[in-house]
Design brief:
A hairpin with a 5-residue loop joins strand 1 and strand 2 (198-199). Helix 2 (39-59) runs antiparallel to helix 9. Strands 1-2 form a two-stranded antiparallel sheet. It has helices at 15-24, 39-59, 61-69, 84-113, 125-129, 137-148, 151-163, 173-184, 201-248, 254-272, and strands at 191-192, 198-199. With 273 residues, it is mainly α. The chain is elongated. The model has no long low-confidence stretch (mean pLDDT 89). The protein is built from 10 helices and 2 strands.
């Protein structure tokens, strides 16, 4: 409903993402499997798997912006209309799940790049910052920062999915729910409460959406900046580990080194301009 914009390609411009994706491309059409390949190839497969999951989840946040921007409500479907109230509830369910999963995707990526050696179920903030394989102090700080970003949304997600507790919507929550239901069933015009109070449904809905949108965008903005810095700190670790694994196998691949050098060159030129 506002003009807030989301840059879904923000992470694609990071050198880390570019190199990981470039190294993965030659492997895409080959019949490799996790754990049965040379260590350098296996490393790229694992890191790409985690990086791609994180990047895709981040990009999927664009859908939340699109859903929040819809003004043609209630939503008509072959099975009946979706009221404004239920539309917002559905958006919140998706939003809370996706924002929460980003933190977990970040932790799994860090575990893979740094080869911490934990099973996915045991990967957590504490497990990472206490592990001796993670020696970069700034990366440790960023692990804490990403854990704190959007923490209130993760807590809301837990209340929703574990206890069924939902946030209140609007200044007159019960009135907003009832008026939305009446509108969905075809009622138009003014909506008046039991005490004669009047609710301008579209205005109330706009306030509900704006509150969610502003809060969501603030979290996404911080996440985008934090993820970009995390990638910057992970890249040297990834590059050193990958080249080390190549040398331990059959020697360094000129093709792989060329892909890395090309990505670094264009990345440096981009930031110079």
């Amino acid at each position: 409903m506002s003009e807030i914009k989301f840059d879904r390609e923000a992470l694609d411009g990071c050198l880390f993402i570019g190199v990981v994706y470039d190294l993965y491309q030659p492997l895409y059409f080959r019949d490799f499997e996790f754990g049965t390949t040379p260590s350098d190839v296996n490393y790229v497969l694992h890191v790409h798997h985690r990086a791609s999951a994180l990047n895709d989840t981040f990009k999927s946040l664009e859908t939340i912006y699109q859903l929040l921007s819809l003004t043609n409500l209630p939503v008509e479907t072959p099975l009946g209309n979706i009221s404004r109230y239920n539309w917002v509830r559905s958006i919140l369910d998706v939003m809370l799940g996706r924002v929460t999963s980003i933190r977990d995707c970040v932790f799994l990526l860090i575990e893979s790049v740094c080869e911490v050696g934990l099973s996915p179920r045991k990967v957590s903030r504490k497990a990472l910052i206490r592990n001796k394989k993670i020696t970069n102090n700034r990366l440790i700080e960023l692990i804490d920062e990403v854990a704190e970003t959007g923490k209130h949304l993760r807590e809301e997600r837990d209340r929703l999915f574990h206890r069924g507790e939902r946030r209140t919507l609007g200044s007159l929550p019960e009135f907003y729910y009832a008026a939305s239901a009446m509108e969905a069933f075809g009622s138009s015009g003014k909506h008046t409460g039991p005490d004669g109070e009047e609710l301008v449904l579209e205005a109330e809905h706009k306030n509900v959406i704006t509150e969610i949108e502003v809060d969501f965008h603030q979290v996404v903005t911080v996440l985008s900046a934090t993820l970009t810095e995390i990638f910057s700190n992970l890249y040297p670790v990834f590059k050193e580990t990958f080249i080390g694994k190549m040398k331990a196998e059959d020697g360094t691949s000129e093709v792989a080194l060329g892909l890395i050098e090309r990505a670094e060159y264009y990345n440096s030129k981009f930031y110079q301009n």
